[in-house]
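> example.struct
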């Protein structure tokens, strides 16, 4: 199968399963066409990424927020199909290897989406992950480490892949430093902008991105497996501030999970585009439209703020996103790597 056909099958599987139905498992896909079956059979055996969460650091609902959208978030959680803070897992089913990408405040519930028996066995022995990748030190991206420590799972000897600054931050500040001291996490700094082999299947690159760096710095991850590559970039101040050509960067991967925090400035009364520390989805689509039209890269927005109408399943914003060839991330999506 050529790359384009493979990507089409991949997209069909990802979007047919969890994107629109809100289904927790891809097995609930309403679509039964050949492409989905093909992609799913590849998924079963092949290394893949599983979307564990899709919203901004503070979750959906956000604490003390009783807007219509946050109440809908409560309803989805009550139904067992809630939204979680942006995160993915990398899964190698045959070798029973699992990686977590960002450790969020929703970690307790969201890792339940990894339904492989092997993962549950590994969790029981307090060694669920072969490694944890952290983009940066904002609460939605690393605070979940806390419940992997003494009072929670009590993991051990787990490598935490991050930048040198982030590793230094973890080693120097409590309660993370105590987790390091106890040998639960092992900060493992990786140089930026070059490939690192993680195991027989996965390689990773760290790409620095401009973001509010109060405690450490911020990176995006590019993961490359035997079949495909995926960019995980949940936070960036704006595309034009990036040292890379954003269009070239996104076009260089098969799947790009990108910062979709806000739809428009209407969500932020009294703010100008200059003081919104994230790109807006519509201008992002304008920027990446040629990449989406090329059909070689699936561009999927994640890290949506609780104010973002693109969270509304089947709403006009989601329809516009889909019509233009983009997508909104949903828990349970899988991308073969
Ligand atoms: Zn964030
Ligand atoms: Zn952030």
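> example.seq
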């Amino acid at each position: 199968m050529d790359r384009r056909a493979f990507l089409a099958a991949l997209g069909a599987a990802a979007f047919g399963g969890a994107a629109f139905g809100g289904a927790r498992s891809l097995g609930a896909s309403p679509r039964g066409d050949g492409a989905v079956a093909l992609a799913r059979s590849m998924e079963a055996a092949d290394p893949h990424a599983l979307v564990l969460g899709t919203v901004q650091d503070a979750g959906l609902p956000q604490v003390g927020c009783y807007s219509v959208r946050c109440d809908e978030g409560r309803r989805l959680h009550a139904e067992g199909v809630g939204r979680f803070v942006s995160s993915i897992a990398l899964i190698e089913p045959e070798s029973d290897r699992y990686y977590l990408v960002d450790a969020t405040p929703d970690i307790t519930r969201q890792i339940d989406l990894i339904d492989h028996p092997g993962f549950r066995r590994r969790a029981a022995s307090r060694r669920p992950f072969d490694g944890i990748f952290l983009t940066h030190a904002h609460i939605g991206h690393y605070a979940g480490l806390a419940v992997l420590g003494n009072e929670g799972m009590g993991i051990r000897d787990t490598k935490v892949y991050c930048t040198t600054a982030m590793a230094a931050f973890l080693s120097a500040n409590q309660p993370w430093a105590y987790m390091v001291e106890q040998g639960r996490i092992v900060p493992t700094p990786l140089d930026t902008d070059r490939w690192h082999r993680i195991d027989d299947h996965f390689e990773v690159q760290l790409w620095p991105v401009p973001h509010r760096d109060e405690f450490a710095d911020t990176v995006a991850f590019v993961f490359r497996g035997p079949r495909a590559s995926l960019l995980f970039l949940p936070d960036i101040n704006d595309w034009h501030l990036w040292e890379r050509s954003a269009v070239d960067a996104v076009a260089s991967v098969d799947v790009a999970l990108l910062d979709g925090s806000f739809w428009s400035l209407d969500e932020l009364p009294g703010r100008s585009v200059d003081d919104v520390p994230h790109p807006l989805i519509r201008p992002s689509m304008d920027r990446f439209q040629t990449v989406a039209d090329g059909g070689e890269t699936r561009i999927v927005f994640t890290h949506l703020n609780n104010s973002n109408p693109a969270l509304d399943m089947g709403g006009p914003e989601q329809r516009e996103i889909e019509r233009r060839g983009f997508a909104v991330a949903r828990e349970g999506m899988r991308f073969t790597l």
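> remarks
The radius of gyration is 19 Å.
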